[in-house]
Amino acid sequence: MIRITSTQQAESLKGILPELVIKRMQEFEGTDDIYDPDIFGYLIWLEPGDDLTQLTDLAQGGLYDLLDNEWLGFEHVELHREVGRDIYEMVVAIDADKTIAVFLEAGPWLDLHLIEVLKAEAAAHSS
Question: In the chain, what are the domain boundaries?
Fold first, then answer.
């Protein structure tokens, strides 16, 4: 799990992070000097082997708390295709100011229930 809090950090991880994540961090940070990840949020890149229950930045029980709780959830889910890879982008509003965007590559390392929810959410948000 990589927590990305600046464009400089994202660009230093080129080759590890998809171009989509680098681009989103550039957009997220913008050109203002007022960006503070503790206030406004940040991005997270999940990798195979990461324990998704430990993603407590989003909810106490991690990513899985967002899947089955009607009071929690994603603001936006989108499926992107980048150089033969399927990458999910999930946006979660933590409060009025803070947003966390989570990215992960679809693959056999993911729980089947998670894949089903992400596919359904991405389809619903693309309509």
Answer: 2-125
